[in-house]
Amino acid sequence: MLAQIIEKPNFRDAFLVAILLTTLVYAVGRRVFAQTSLPPGVARFDRTDAGWISFASLRSITDFKISMKQGHEKYSKLDKPFICPHFLDGPLVILPPSALSDVLRQPEQTLSAQKVQDAMTETEYTTGDLRFEHAGIHQGLVRQRLTAPGVVSLVPAMADEIRLALAEDWGEDSSSWHDVNLLESVMRVVARTTNRMIAGEALCRDAHFLDICRRYTEILLGIAALIKLFPLWTRHLVAPLLTYPIRRLVRGAYKSTKPVILARLALNEQTKSDDIPNDYLQWLIDEAKRRNDPWELRPETMSRRIVLLNFVAIHSSTMTATNALLDLLSDRTSKAELDSLQQECAREYANAGECWTGDAVQRLVKLDSAVKESLRLRPLSMRGVERL
């Protein structure tokens, strides 16, 4: 666009570029020069000697991880809080580990986890309808059904999908080697397994739908970060333009989910409850009927909830699984340790009748410990537990 404006000046395009550049300058300046109300008596880590003009927030773009580690050594280990700069979110108050139990005891009205999620994804602009986040229907289902023991009944189907996905992606020929992009491969496997749990085989093997879910996961946080750069009063103006790729993906997903959802709704009207599948889509339908909420029963609403659940599940599960595999296969893990994990898996698989069940997975104590250690070494977020 800039080259076109230089070659053929156009007032409209030039005005648009001027607005974008002005906004960018404002965003950077606001983070460098603006003073923020901060708790008194808390050390502000990584602040320059230039008084209220601090470039620490700019350095946080590349040095945030380093700043957090140094702040941990200097303050957290002495049981003291500190303030760490962050370019997008502003100064963050980092509490020592001893305060964690007090933070978790606070009610949502005092310290909110939902507000953290909304701020991270800029929910108001990226979803276009706060009911998707604040209606409460999916939070309850995730807590009650998608955590142990609620998810135990889904383990056989998920294990079957993992086996099929790995066979397609990694192959079953153990006599020769071939290259695999681990992150992309794990993301494909996670996407298939997630959607087997969400709506069964109909969606989990729809390559077009899985590609949409992966792309949605990859772009949403980036678009949310762009929105954060704009002043609050301009976000309603620029968000429709910035979130166009999200809306396009949501429409594309609906083309795949609509026939599946309509078929399931019809099945609920014709079939006895014993014959209806047990998955997330069915739980959504049951909960919407229980609440007598026509908006929740709309295929468009359920489709969007399916896409949102994909975002949460694919991102976190992919990073966790990829890091765990890299840790287990690194030179830090001995052959004896790997053999011990393989023996545990083989033993529990045989004891379960060569079919993975929820009980068998829960008996994988060593593997569970290995994944937890990987998460400890490489957490999904440097910030830990967050509240607003």
UniProtKB/TrEMBL annotation:
Q: Name one Pfam family in it.
A: p450
Entry keyword set: Heme, Iron, Metal-binding, Monooxygenase, Oxidoreductase
Stored SUPFAM superfamilies? Cytochrome P450 (SSF48264)
Question: Can the keyword Oxidoreductase be found in this entry's annotation?
Answer: yes
Asked if the Swiss-Prot or TrEMBL record annotates the protein with the keyword Oxidoreductase, the reply is: yes
This entry's Gene Ontology molecular function terms read: heme binding; iron ion binding; monooxygenase activity; oxidoreductase activity, acting on paired donors, with incorporation or reduction of molecular oxygen
The signal peptide annotation in the UniProt record is none
Source taxon at top rank = Eukaryota
Please give the cofactor(s) recorded in the UniProt entry for this protein: heme
Q: Which family does it belong to?
A: Belongs to the cytochrome P450 family.
Q: Mind telling me what this protein is named? A: Cytochrome P450
List the source organism.
Answer: Cryoendolithus antarcticus
